[in-house]
Structures are given as structure tokens and as C-alpha cells.
Amino acid sequence: MQYAYADAYTTSREKMISGAFASTMHLLFIALLVFGVNWQKKVEPQVNIVDLWSPPSAAPPQAAPPPPPPEPPKPEVQPKVDPAPPQPVAKPEVAKPDIAFKDKQKVEKTAPRVVEDKQKEAKKREDDTQAAQKAQQAEAQRLANEQAEAQKAVAAQAASAQSKMRSEYMERIRAKILRALIKPPNIQGSEEAEFNIVVLPDGNVLNARVKRASGNSAYDNAIERAITRAQPLPMPPDPALLKEFRELNLKFNAKE
């Protein structure tokens, strides 16, 4: 009753719209069914594959790559320098005839003076050289004279010392002989005898003889015995004097 009542109030246009909507819905539903069936056919079941994993072996150490070679220096681009314009060459001035003549006269006048000055300088150098040589010679002569004087002084001092030693030992020998002398009783006091005595280096008497008698033989014999008793005679320590004491010439006076 209700459906019949609803159809009684439905227009033909509404029926057409509802029929078109229903048809569209049916077409969409059919398209979805077809699409779903085709999609299930294409999708295959997935198979899960499990790989057993093991740690990878350590890779061998690789040498460090050599450093890249340095880039060659880029050549410097020298700025282009424009060459300087050539300088104008000055032309030598030509001396005027009168100026050249005056210069020539001036040179001719000064040339003798220059030569004279050079000669004076050479003469001065020569004089200075000669003066220096004379001064050196004078100094050398002075030093030589001083050295000679010093040598003479040393020689004189040595000679004086030897003379003093000679006199000293002569007196010592005479004194020793006089101490050994025993005078005879008949001495008058004016007797004087001279003896020549040969002495060895150790002071012993090799020979003693009368060179000049006193005139009293007893006195002369007493002196000879005294010489023998006084040996060894005192001799100087200087070897240079021993030759002089080889032969002695001694005088004896009765008054001593």
C-alpha cells in the first residue's frame, strides 16, 4: 500500500534520475569486482629468503696514495714596458781656436813646474831614506859601543879580581914561608935574597933555588929550609891563575 502510494506521487523525471543513479552504482560495483579479481591474480605470494651473514674479513691495509705533484709555477707575466725614447746625443763642442791656444800656453807654463815638483819630491824621499839609514847605523854603532864598553868593564873587573887574588895569594905564600923561617944568629939586618920556586898545582914545591943571594949563606939556607917546611903552599882556586903560580919569584928581607 505504501509502495503503491509512493509511486503515485513520483514523477517520470525523478524516476529517470533514480534509474540513472542506480545504473551508475551497479556499474561502479561491477568495475570494483573486476578490478579486485585481476589484482589478486597479479600479486604473487612473497617468499622470505634469509641469508646467513658472517662478518666480512678485514681488508688489507692500503698504502696511502702519494701526494699529488706540486703544480708548476705559473710564469709571471711581465708587464710590457714601453722602451724609453732615445736620448738625444749631445754633440761635442768644438773648442774655439783662441781657447785652445790659451790652454796650450797654460800647459806649457805649468809643465816645467810639475816636473820640478816631482824632482823635489823624489829628492826629499831620497834624503829621508838616507837620514833613516844614518840613524839606524848610528843606533847600531851606539849599541855596539855600549856592548864593547860593557865587555871591557867586565874584563877589567875580572882582571882586577884576578890581580887582587894574585897579590893576596902571593902574600899568603910569603907569610907562610916567613912563619916557617928560623933566622940564624949572625943576621946583620941588611940581607935580602931572591928565590925562584917551582910549585905544583897541589901546592907542593918541586924545586927552590937562589936567584940572587943575600951575601949571607946562613940566611939563604934558612930561607930554603923554610920553603920546604911551608909546603903545601896556598894556591888560588881560580884555574886561570894556576899557570901564573907555576913559577914564583919571591924576595925575602932580613928585616921582615
Key words describing this protein structure:
about 260 residues; mainly alpha; Fusion Protein Consisting Of Minor Coat Protein, Glycine Rich Linker, Tola, And A His Tag, Chain: A, Domain 2; 5 helices; 3 strands; disordered N terminus
CATH topology of the domain at 165-253: Fusion Protein Consisting Of Minor Coat Protein, Glycine Rich Linker, Tola, And A His Tag, Chain: A, Domain 2
Helix content: 40-55%
- CATH architecture assignment of the domain at 165-253: 2-Layer Sandwich
Query: How many extended strands?
Result: 3
- Strand proportion: 5-15%
Number of helices: 5
Structural class: mainly alpha
Taking the alpha carbons of the first and last residues, their distance comes to: 223 Å
Using only C-alpha atoms, the radius of gyration works out to 79 Å
Order of helices and strands: HHHEEHHE
What is the mean predicted local confidence, pLDDT? 77
Q: At the first level of CATH, what is the class of the domain at 165-253? A: Alpha Beta
Assign an overall shape.
Answer: elongated
Strand order of the largest sheet: 2-1-3
Low-confidence regions: 1-9
Tell me about the largest β-sheet: 3 strands, antiparallel
